[in-house]
Amino acid sequence: MRWIISDIERASFVNLRTDADREKFIEAFWLQRDPTPGTEENEYKEEHYRRLAYANDRFTEDVPGWNTDRGMVYIRFGPPDALDVHGAIPGVSFPYESWRYRYIQGMGTDVDLEFVDTTMTGRYHLTRDPSEKQTRK
Questions:
Q1: Do 113 and 126 contact (CB within 8 A), yes or no?
Q2: Which residues contact 118 (CB under 8 A, 6 or more apart)?
């Protein structure tokens, strides 16, 4: 829930004192997000756990995939609408990935996110600086 819980919900959760209260909170958390209340499935919860498993499978580095920048973005926003993967070009650029989303609520349309591996170890981080892809001479 780390990447989808609101700040207000997080503050409420950390102030809970008993396991029973925490369990009630978690149950209510998922119920509030259920797109089809009254059915056995909670599609939102199932999709969240599917994304979590995918992130762990695809983005694990020296930490679990859910705890990486690419994992966080994938869990929060789902798969990108377009993905460009670029390998390193010696002396020119580090490996990087460009993810494009047609729309992200609160961010707008045609959102481009870039992840770069400046350590050449498979550990990508989200960057806002396009020049970070370039190797230093």
A1: yes
A2: 94, 125, 132
Tell whether 55 is covered by a domain.
Answer: no
Q: What is the pLDDT of residues 69-93, one digit of tens each?
A: 999 999 999 999 999 999 999 989 9
Task: Report which of 85, 124, 84, 87 is spatially closest to residue 100, judged by C-alpha positions.
Answer: 84
Considering the domain boundaries, does residue 10 fall inside one? no
In a domain, 88, yes or no: yes
Q: Confirm whether 117 is domain-assigned.
A: yes
Angle CA(67)–CA(70)–CA(72) in degrees, nearest 5? 50
pTM (two decimals): 0.87
Domain hosting residue 89, numbered range = 80-137
The count of structural domains within the chain is 1
- How many C-alpha atoms does 2 have within 13 Å on its Cβ side? 12
pLDDT of residue 34: 93
Task: Note the pLDDT of residue 137.
Answer: 52
